[in-house]
Amino acid sequence: MPQPVLELFPTSLRLVLERMPPVAKDNLEEIRIRENRPLEIGYGSRYSFLREDGSLTEQFREAYVPTKEHCRALLERITNHSIYAMEEELRRGYVTVSGGHRIGLVGRAVLDRGAVSHLRDIAGFNVRIARERPGFGAQVLPGLLDYQARTLRHTLVVSAPQQGKTTLIRDLARCISTGQWHHSAARGWGSRKVGIIDERSEIAACQNGVPSFDLGPRCDVLDACPKAEGMMMMLRSMSPEVLVVDEIGRPEDAEAIREAIHAGVRVLATAHASDLADVLARPVLARLAAEGVFSAYVFLSKREERVEHRIVSGKEAGQALSPYAARAFGALPRDAPGEEASLTGASVRPDACEPARSKSRPMPVIRSPNGACGEGGGGG
User: How far apart are alpha carbons 159 and 276 in whole angstroms?
Assistant: First the structure.
């Protein structure tokens, strides 16, 4: 367990965590602290409760119970004793600490004009442990190469939470930045300039703007910046050859990705979904698939401590699109009678699809590198 994370906890909690058996400590993924409820950990795709002596149990009544004082002390350490200075983080529901470890927060939401202003009465924490896995990218990268262009294909990495998406794209960014393509046909390609938009400060784990993780010699990071705006800033200022971005899914993210690929930049992104069907059932991702934006999809799944991957071509994703098109693009409500069956079975041209009618936050003005300007959210 990383020492900087351990030092965040009050003494009594830290002692319990220090006594964990090696099998849990070495594979620790999550620590869940809930006020007046059992202390829980996640490790190697399993979970257990912790007794006061650090031993593992599946019986929650035997577990150590953090108190209100523990939670208050933990919050003060996470926020450096200044909750008001972390107001934006509290509004988003998480704080990223040194080392790229993200701490989710739950409590009472305070609303301002119908939107969440911040959290108060925080009584639950989920400490997610960030880890480097050098060599993870070497297993995947050879299947993502564009041999004609001598670079990476436009790639979307997909999985459910905690399956290794962020860990994978971090290592892929390092490989590309150092020119380690891990394929004999790619010898002599050289490295590429990589730009990372790290909205949640998890990919690079920057401290005062400097990455904590090894991302290679030709990598630039825009830390704690919204994805869509950050991609445009990176294109204008740093001329990347590969853009890396985590957890896309909003219309403005898709528009920024279109701008990037039209500027000749390769895109490596992640998204939450369990499989291809889930990807195509999400309106924004389905539209990108219909347009053929991504030429490779990487699906991750975890078995015990091992992460497995499967690569699907963009062509295969496009062929699978039609059963989901009507629902994904808002052509008909899911319970519409009659015509839905025939429409969902028909092929769909990208230029014939209407954008989804789902609500989204206001779109930023996006300016392309050539100076043209337009509102986000339109077709690419």
Answer: 10
- CATH H-level superfamily of 136-346: P-loop containing nucleotide triphosphate hydrolases (3.40.50.300)
Q: Output the pLDDT for position 325.
A: 57
Q: What is the CATH number of domain 3-128?
A: 3.30.450
- Confidence (pLDDT) at 102: 87
Q: What is the pLDDT of residue 47?
A: 94
Residue 39 near residue 63 (C-beta atoms within 8 A): yes
Run means of pLDDT, 10 residues per run, the chain, 380 residues: 83 95 92 97 92 96 96 91 76 83 91 86 93 88 96 96 92 97 95 96 88 94 94 96 96 96 96 92 92 95 83 89 57 38 33 40 46 42
| 119 class by beta-carbon count within 10 Å (0-12 exposed, 13-18 middle, 19+ buried) | buried
| pLDDT for res 327 | 52
Chain region(s) in the chain for CATH 3.30.450: 3-128
Q: Where in the chain is the domain with CATH 3.40.50.300?
A: 136-346
pTM assigned to the model: 0.75
Question: Which residues does 359 contact at the CB level (< 8 Å), separation at least 6?
Answer: none
| Predicted local distance difference test score (pLDDT) of residue 80 | 82
What is the C-alpha to C-alpha distance for residues 28 and 99, in angstroms, rounded to an integer? 15
